[in-house]
Amino acid sequence: MDRAALFDIDGTLVDTNHLHVVAWWEAFRQGGHQVPTHAVHRAIGLPGEQLIEHLLGRSRDPSDDDRLSTAHDTLYATFFERLQAFDKAGDLLRALAGDGWKVVLVTSAKDRELSALRRAVDADEALADTATSDDVEEGKPAPDPIEHALSLVGVPADRAVFVGDSVWDMKAARRAGVVSAGLLCGGIPRADLTEAGAAAVYADPADLLAHLDTSPFKTVPADGAPSGAGGP
Fold it and tell me: Transmembrane stretches, by residue range (predicted)?
């Protein structure tokens, strides 16, 4: 029976969270809004429209959302050729694929941004599929992106593990019934990830790779037998 290893990209596999913070901060500044960077950082991981609502509130003028998003996208695009994956990110995906896992990226990135992120990770041969925000009606923390990713590879929730770096990732996984592992490399504290539902927390992809044998991935056996089941 197949198993699915689901991965967020921004802040999880590629060191982009603070670049997004700068791009959003400048986009808001250009739009006449003063939003502190720490607040922007906490919102990273939400789809653009939800991030804007989260930071500016429902009383904002929503007709300005597209202009803010476009400003962010334009600013962030200047980093595309310089994006860097975290240490061992590609090796982690290849190790899981080599062990029979169906590796799926779950991201709100699309088009040129997604291409830049995949170039940075440099592990396309390990990927079974990619689920983007265009595929679902509602992004994280709703379970929709994770449920869609599972449908792409035909794997049930109890045969999957999701890895992310934000509280939105952990909440989405919990709502989808998928065990999750949190990474600290996105800048969110361990306690916040754990409270949001992370079953385990690691420093970064290299740390998770070094501890795969004791990670949540070990709780999903290859043969579909219950974890910890004894032999004959």
Answer: none
164 contacts 170 by C-beta, under 8 angstroms: yes
Instruction: Report yes or no on whether pTM surpasses 0.85.
Output: yes
Query: What does 75-134 look like in DSSP terms, one character per residue?
Result: HHHTTGGG--BPTTHHHHHHHHHHTTEEEEEEES--HHHHHHHHHHH--GGGEEEEEEGG
3-state secondary structure of 200: strand
Per-residue pLDDT of 96-147, as tens digits, reads 999 999 999 999 888 899 999 999 999 999 999 999 888 888 999 999 999 9
* Integer angstrom CA distances of residue 163 from 6, 15, 143, 202, 204: 6, 15, 14, 10, 10
Identify the structural domains of the chain with CATH numbers, from first to last.
3-15+84-219 (3.40.50.1000), 17-78 (1.10.150)
3-state SS, residue 143? coil
